[in-house]
Amino acid sequence: MPPDEARPPLGDDPSASSAGKAVRVVRVLTLLDASRHSLAALAAAVELAAARHAELVALFVEDQEIVSSAGFPFAREIGAVSGRARRRSRDDLLVGQARQARRVTEALEAAVAGRELRHELRISRGAIVSEAQALAGPGDVLMLGKAGFSGHWGVRLGSTSRALMLEAPCTVIIWDERLPLAHGPLRTLAETDAQEPSLMEVPEALARLFEGEEVLEASDARDLEHRLRRATSGALLLHRPRLARLAEQDPDLLARLPIPLIVVP
Amino acid sequence: MVEPLDVTQVYRRCDIEAFAFEITSELESLDLLSGHERARDALSFGTAMRSDGFNLFVLGAPGHDRQSLVGRFLAELAKRGPVPGDWCYRYNFDDPAAPLVLSLPAGMGRTLREDLDGLIEELSSAIPAVFESEEYQNRLHELKQAMGERQRDAVENVRGEAREHGILLLSTPNGFTFAPADGDTMMAPEAFEALPAEERERIEHKVEELQRTLTQAIRQMPRLAKQLREQASALNEEMLESAIDAPLDEFKERYAAQQGVITHLEAIREAILFNAESFIEEDPDIPAEALYSRIQINLLVDNAEAKGAPVIHQDLPSHQHLVGRIEHHVHNGTLLTDFLLIRAGALHRANGGYLVLDVRDVLTQPGAWETLKRVLRAGEIRTESLEQAYGLISTVTLEPQPIPLDVKIVLLGDRLLYYLLCEHDPEFLELFKVQADLEDELDRDREHEAFYARMVATLVRTAALRPLGREGVAAVIERASRLAGDQRKLTARHRDLHDLLLEADHWAGEAGDRVIDRAHVEKAVAQQFWRAGRIRERSHELFTRGTLMVATEGHVVGQVNGLAVMQLGESAFGQPTRITATARPGEGRVVDIEREARTGGRIHAKAVMILSRYLASRYAALEPLSLSASLAFEQSYGGVEGDSASVAEACVLVSAIAGVGLDQAFAVTGSIDQHGSVQAVGGVNEKIEGFFDVCRSRGTLSGQAVILPRTNVGHLMLNGEVREAIEQGRFRVFAISRVDEALSLLTGLPIGELDARGRFPEGSLEARVAERLAQFREAVTHARRAERGLNGEAAEEKEEDDDAP
Question: Is it true that domain A14-62+116-264 has CATH number 3.40.50.12370?
Fold first, then answer.
């Protein structure tokens, strides 16, 4: 089945990439690293791509920096939760990355199995953020898992997700693996600043995934969190400048939101 | 010669001249227990004794309306008694499976329940408001933010320190690693190797130090998280206190005198503070609604509107209905229960008063009798199912705290049950020390007739019937005397009397009369008789058609009419039965054919032995009685019991021995002793009326008669038809005290007494008997001699055969 709204990665009208209804889902991108979070995001990405008849592109980046860091004689990995330091050799890391790549491939095949979905797995080397940014273009949707440290000191948003959310040239969806893919309203924030894109400029393709819209009157990060504390379905849509302001007010806010977050440029 | 009884002797009329009223509505009501002084005194005593075990057992025949007799007495007594308090169950916050008892003054339970509902309403709006408030949200946010910063700072500080020493903190999939920096990027390992040894050593040393610092920082994360939880919970508690303390304090003030309520309120406060997350979390372990429901009380017994001590009559005294039950809700196929589903039993409701139970009902309900005894022994009501009590189930359920019991149990039952329980249940008399024995009969004299009239008036008034006229009351009294089967007694069984009055009222209504009179009462009696008369009529028809053979005229040797009573449920009727006898020479035996055929009962067998010894001692005091006689109840198939035919049997034997015919117009009833005295028997009215009916249905009455013991004359209350026939001389009743009198009436011969020569007068009955017995003796002697001659000595050892002449 041909994608109904297939467009080149870079749209004809560059202004359309900043915001507005003209943005159409061309590709659904997702970052894979074999973690639970990324696999959950993969499942959501498959759903989205299938729903929009878009191409699914999964990106697996072999982080070279980490591999080389194992070359130091004193190199140790300190567990994020246990705090335990352990020696890991360069070979271990390479083997690990190869294993990850294999798992990612299998996971993607399993996720798209039985669906007529154009999909591709790209494996590259370098830094994750820069590789992802290089891949993404306006009109794409980047689906990210809510990576970070889970467990006894709470969920935090990973640095990769944080960077991509604030910098990627396309729409970014932060998916929380703990949440089911539940239909509900797409929540937006009421804006008073005329400089900001208007409320209605929600990508149509995304709006169709949800049951109506709901406008939240939230003045700051704390207020937003309070208003969303009983939310169980739907998602929150934020424009990037607004997101940046909220992240300044409370760096951990994005990690604590109980529903998926959609960031449009 | 014995004279027949006149009509005044066979029926005692009630003298209406003694009544000082025209109709019963003029009479004042009386306590229906008045005739039962003994039972009333026992009830007064038993109810006044508050010690354990002084429970009551009211004994009486089924015809006593025990329930209403005792019910009225207790209701009167209870009116003056104190109103007991309310009983509630409250949630046990320490052990939810064992709800706690809350005792309150009467009426306070209802108020408390409403107040607690109000409190719940207040809390359910006040608590969420507190957590929604800006103050709470801000403070909580500050806490979280501060804690987030502390967590972040712990890592960032390490990162900063590393940076200062030219080292980078890198994130890996599982955690962190350190690497020397080359500007903003990581130094290549090759470049590191190229550094001077000193520099390398410094970096290596620093990295080791940083690793230790980071490890420590990471390891204190759980402590920080715990601190956050503690601070948040302290905040929650602080906020909750602000919401609940004011309403709880106000509540405590209102119920300051009730320690139980105060304890409950304190437990509520603790539970709310302990379960703060119920009001905050989206999906808490204990939802707020569940917590609120624990505040409520289960008002088990509400005495708010009681006017005195309770009197409860439990008509289905099953285990559950006595001690209450624990109900369950079905939720997703699982049975759930809580303290609010405990339901009161009759013992709860009667606590502080009286519980009236029918003992037969208690005994027939599975486990109920044992439960009742257990409760009385323990002095407390333990609400548990029968399965639980007997350990048949072991599922988790409630074990409510037992409620102290202060109740007077009044059992109602038949005498038989009372004596059976005394005999077979060793605990019975320990727990039911007071017997209240109702009278079956009241004396009939002028005073009691007037009293009975008031009783009738009371029953009529209670049942809202037409009043009775004087003749009506007289008819009721005469009927009561007949029901008692005694001219000098009146039945005390209220139910029979009550039914008679209802029926008489019905017939008065049918006749359009406003006052119940003799005619209505008599019609009611006649109708009762008619309704129950089908079998009696079929039975009498058998006599009329000759299927059952009875002679009512002429003289027959060795045959007499006995009288039997058939009891069919509540009704009874009499009928004649043909008793025959044979006599021939023999070895002094009277063969009771009924006994031989095993259709006779023990008492009958005893009576035949007595009469045969009487005959032997009378007619052969000094010599062997060479007689072989037999006795039988002809056409009797259902068995014979009782001794009331022994006079008739004695007469028929004498007739058979003497060969003298007996007058078949007579029927005989009465028992005899070994000296020939005639003793009283039962059912004389039914027997006489039964014989009368049979004689009348066979043709015109011509002086047929019944012979009965003189001691039974006082029991005669014969019906109008028999009385009329007696008055006209067409039917007679003779009362005798010696068997000779019966023989004289039946044979028409003088009995005869021994003269100076030891002989009976010629033509007397005794002379005939003596003569025949002498013939028998001679025949026996002759036969023996003949036998000895034929068989020699050996034959003498052989037992005598009855058939041998």
Answer: yes
